[in-house]
Amino acid sequence: MFRFDNRVVAITGASSGLGAQMADAFAQQGASLVLMARRVEKCEALAKILKEKYNAESLCIKCDVTSTESVNAAAKSAEEKFGNVDILINNAGASKNGGCLDMTDEDWDFTIDVDLKSVFLVTRAFGNIMKKNNYGRIINIASIYGLVGNKILEAPTYHASKGGVINFTRAVAAELAKYNITCNAICPGFFTTELTESFMETELFDNYCKASVPMLRWGKEGEINPGAIFLASEEASYVTGIALPIDGGYTAV
């Protein structure tokens, strides 16, 4: 179960963090990879490691997920290389935080474009490849902050974008089911990445985590991977439209 031999997995934001971790997990299970990011040199370094570890084949593409032209070109390159794309993971994201009363239009638009509009652009481009093959698995990386508010960080645009990703996931799941394409979201809790480590690795956040997360800690490297492997698998063929929290119980209380 849960093997991906002869499957092609495309991942945005694959240069570091959760994207790189999921790439490693899928390569270990036999997948070929399309690694997309603005920092393509980091994808190429990752591809070399995955080739050495698992003999995984990778295509690395420099891609700006907020640009229709860049996304469509990436999809075309992936299809030309592999003939199809079976699994898409919309992982790329960034955020300019600030309170609702003080946030600028520019910061709002930046976050919505990177975290929400990009999911639409990439899903449209790669979903049309999946439609032709009558098979697909789409996984959108949302956030627990798409499900709830929070009291420690002012980030209304991030909450709005990730909430939008979750309901976009439901809409796409309903729309594309007739093409044998599933669409699900993963809602990570607190995981250290390049964007979060400076804030999370503080005494303030450690105390907050212990007070708010039933498991008394943030997520460890690799703990997102099993959820992605499951939702992308052939075995999850009847699972679509869900938002799966992987959060140590944060949204359970």
TrEMBL record:
Transmembrane segments: none annotated. GO terms for biological process: fatty acid elongation. Signal peptide: none annotated. One of its GO terms (molecular function) is oxidoreductase activity, acting on the CH-OH group of donors, NAD or NADP as acceptor. Gene3D superfamilies: NAD(P)-binding Rossmann-like Domain (3.40.50.720). InterPro entries: NAD(P)-bd_dom_sf (IPR036291), SDR_fam (IPR002347). Pfam families: adh_short_C2. Belongs to the short-chain dehydrogenases/reductases (SDR) family. This is Glucose/ribitol dehydrogenase. It comes from Carpediemonas membranifera.
